[in-house]
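Appendix B, record 7
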Amino acid sequence: MIDLRSDTVTKPTAAMRRAMADAEVGDDVLDGDPTVLALQERVAAMLGKERALFFPTGTMANATGLWVHGKHGTEAYAHDDSHIVNWEIAGLAGLRGLQPRLVRGAPVMTLETLRAAVRPASKHAPTASVVCFENTHNGAGGMVTPLADLRAMAAFARTTLRLPIHMDGARLWNASAATGTPLADFAACADTVMVSFSKGLGAPVGAALAGSAGHMEDAFVARKRFGGGMRQSGILAAAALYGLDHHLGRLVDDHANAARLAAVVADGVADVQVVPPDTNIVMVDLPARLDAATVVAKAKDQGVLLSAWHAKRVRLVCHLDVSRDQVEQAARVLVAALA
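Structure tokens (predicted):
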């Protein structure tokens, strides 16, 4: 099967497995695992932050960032199609007592849509305590929010709203690879930033949250409360370090494969709408005659796995376990399924 459901489906390479097996380890909860500490220091430096913490999942790291900044009984500004709103089983509310203040009106958050979402001051309306960015934006097809736009929104959040910012940067690696923008420049637009190792970098597990030393002290407490304190987790951190060393530079290959896939599908079927990919995700919007479940089933019968994003949209994600030849084959299968 050619699995294009997500870039989370990658298997650790043989070399990554060797790095995991050879990792120096310790008890990370008691006095620090040396490989975890090395990973945290490296990620903090890459993102231009004082400190970073290793997490088992990006969802937990996002929840911790919101725990650090958010206040119970307030709102979090978040895009209406963001991962934090739609795919983290109401962690905003369940873990931190936040409700989302949905930012609508564009595929990704913009300064104009953020401004439009601000409530007029009223003793009857909830206040907000945090702003959430997402880059790249999963629901928008891996769309990149450019640095200039992020800086404008960050300035508005910090100076006008006087609120802290958390960035869901699960695929921030892809945003940097696609634009040439340094990771630290993107990360400077938020007070805390989450990055994932289990997507484009091919690690089996893991994410990191980066921010100031004070924020990471608070994050350590939240991570413990959420059950994220791991012991000899250097075995997992070694995979993340290997991904940074060997897989970060090849993300542009995934972007090129996604562009090729999108072009073949767009040229091959006249009445579908293909969202031009910025990075490694391809969204295909279906005409009235088709539904996503049927397309997914037809493609699976021909050896290609894809995701039904919703009833009228399918998603395909390119990653290190899919070659250009497999992308070409998957594109032909999808064209046939759509036709």
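Remarks on this record: Residues 251-268 form the longest helix (18 residues). The chain has 14 helices and 13 strands.
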